[in-house]
Write a structure and sequence with these properties.
mainly alpha, 3 strands
């Protein structure tokens, strides 16, 4: 979705390994203990580079992989808290280094994903509770940045977007929000590409919503 958003804004977006400014790594978690591709490591790698001049939009989005791995685990609540603490530290470091525009989306209720649905209703409930806890803690963590001089902190409510899709898929342009597209010839109308990841159609919806948030009321 960030690629769609960059296109809407007329901005270049290339992988960091190719000299670009997209430091995202597939499967990465927020928890710094998860390895050298964690989001904390990504942010640190970015902060070691020479930053571009002029107004820059920073997007910090994570937590889904942390929570999916935590469903049904005894340390699940600690995992949520560690993820939020890591995300807050990333935002704090960016702001300290002069970032003025930071977009931070929250998480959908991850029980909507096919991979969690396949584990049964108890897993769905547990997963959704973890998402709710994450979002509440995230709101609290980011509230400390309110009023910070020069910082514009944008929030994208992915939770509410997902709830609208779940309540009335058709109004959001989806016909199937349960079954993965699974490499069908056409994924039109599908919410999920595989057991976890949204389709490109869903990513387009996220980009549209993000663009609206950035443009203001």
């Amino acid at each position: 979705w960030v690629e769609y958003l960059a296109k809407k804004l007329g901005l270049p977006l290339n992988p960091a390994r190719a000299g670009g400014t997209n430091f995202a790594v597939g499967g990465a978690r927020l928890d710094p203990r998860s390895g050298d591709t964690s989001m904390r490591a990504q942010a640190s790698a970015y902060l070691r580079t020479s930053r571009p001049h002029g107004r820059t939009l920073y997007i910090v989005y994570g937590g889904g992989n942390d929570l999916l791995a935590a469903v049904g685990q005894p340390q699940a609540l600690r995992t949520v808290d560690a993820a939020v603490a890591s995300l807050r530290s990333i935002v704090a470091d960016l702001a300290r280094q002069g970032a003025a525009d930071i977009l931070v989306p929250n998480l959908p209720a991850i029980g909507i994903t096919p991979v969690v649905r396949a584990q049964g209703s108890r897993a769905v409930e547990a997963a959704n509770n973890l998402s709710a806890r994450f979002n509440t803690a995230l709101n609290q963590a980011l509230s400390g940045f309110a009023g910070q001089n020069g910082l514009r902190l944008y929030r994208l409510d992915v939770w509410q977007m997902a709830e609208r899709v779940r309540a009335d898929p058709a109004t959001m342009g989806f016909a199937n929000i349960i079954t993965p597209c699974d490499r069908r010839r056409s994924c039109d109308g599908y919410l999920f590409w595989d057991n976890v990841h949204p389709t490109t159609q869903a990513h387009q919806r996220l980009a549209e919503a993000a663009a609206q948030v950035l443009s203001g009321p």
